[in-house]
């Protein structure tokens, strides 16, 4: 065989090898596309199922006969790899920012911000700016911020001169960026949905201590009394307080001498946050419902849905 023929056959072999390689790459790419499409379809199916499960959880959590700690609030199927978990949380366990500003309780907000790390002047400025954001007029508080300040930084039609519709609006107020720098979890302290006062049966010792102007370690007596002899919350031996005066007496606060402190509290707030997370094959969806008078004539105040990574 001459060299020309051998060269042609060698070239053909190389071409065949290249063709096989190209086809192999194309096959791999096609398989990846198919696998991706299957993953997308599976995620959509599981996402829809997770949403259904979250809705089931909301329906159970909204039932007035279901109480916190009820086993029915958490259901899981190992066979189907799916289920839901529901939490019932009182909104009364947080400070209602609109109620505090409406009552002009600036001292509580100032002491709170100072405890978080702001100095006295910074805390006073933030509180005055919060008050200016909510009050109906354009008269500026001593250290506040009205239209002129917000226009100067390029923000028109602010402040809104009304109560806050959600906590994210608070971030628009002058000085709240400083608050967030010191206390990134500040949202966990506030709500706009509670009936007004801080619920002594639901709030943490830290919040009770700030509102009652006592050390946090002293305020722990409140939840310790509520949980009863077994030391577990939401069981039959719980002893919730029937009045704020009853609880404040344990803290050494006389409501007659400090009516301002007594006015900060309540018991048995009727606003409930229902959080339901549905899971299907690792895909999760969350629905949150805020309801007033869940055990009476319920009224839905807010509903949100989100995808959980």
Characterization of the model:
The chain has 309 residues and is an alpha/beta fold. It folds into 3 domains: 47-93 and 271-309, Nuclear Transport Factor 2, Chain: A (Roll); 95-189, Orthogonal Bundle (Ribonucleotide Reductase Protein R1, domain 1); 197-268, no CATH class. It is built from 11 helices and 9 strands. It has helices spanning 3-61, 97-102, 106-116, 120-134, 147-152, 176-182, 205-212, 216-219, 221-226, 244-250, 259-262, and strands at 74-77, 82-90, 95-96, 190-191, 198-199, 265-266, 271-280, 283-292, 299-308. The strands form 3 sheets. A 5-stranded antiparallel sheet has the order 1-2-7-8-9. A hairpin with a 6-residue loop joins strand 8 and strand 9 (299-308). The termini are far apart.
Could you write a compact summary of the structure shown?
By secondary structure, this protein is of the alpha/beta class. The chain has helices at residues 3-61, 97-102, 106-116, 120-134, 147-152, 176-182, 205-212, 216-219, 221-226, 244-250, 259-262, and strands at residues 74-77, 82-90, 95-96, 190-191, 198-199, 265-266, 271-280, 283-292, 299-308. The chain is built from eleven helices and nine strands.
CATH architecture of the largest domain: Orthogonal Bundle
| Helix-strand makeup class | alpha/beta
Question: Shape, please?
Answer: extended
Ends: how far apart? 67 Å
Task: State which percent range the strand residues make up.
Answer: 15-25%
Roughly how many Å is the radius of gyration? 29 Å
CATH class of the largest domain: Mainly Alpha
CATH fold descriptor of the largest domain: Ribonucleotide Reductase Protein R1, domain 1
Q: Which sequence of strands runs across the widest sheet?
A: 1-2-7-8-9
CATH homology group of the largest domain:
EpsJ-like
Largest sheet: 5 strands, antiparallel
Query: What is the arithmetic mean of pLDDT?
Result: 91
Helix content: 40-55%
Give me the count of strands. Answer: 9
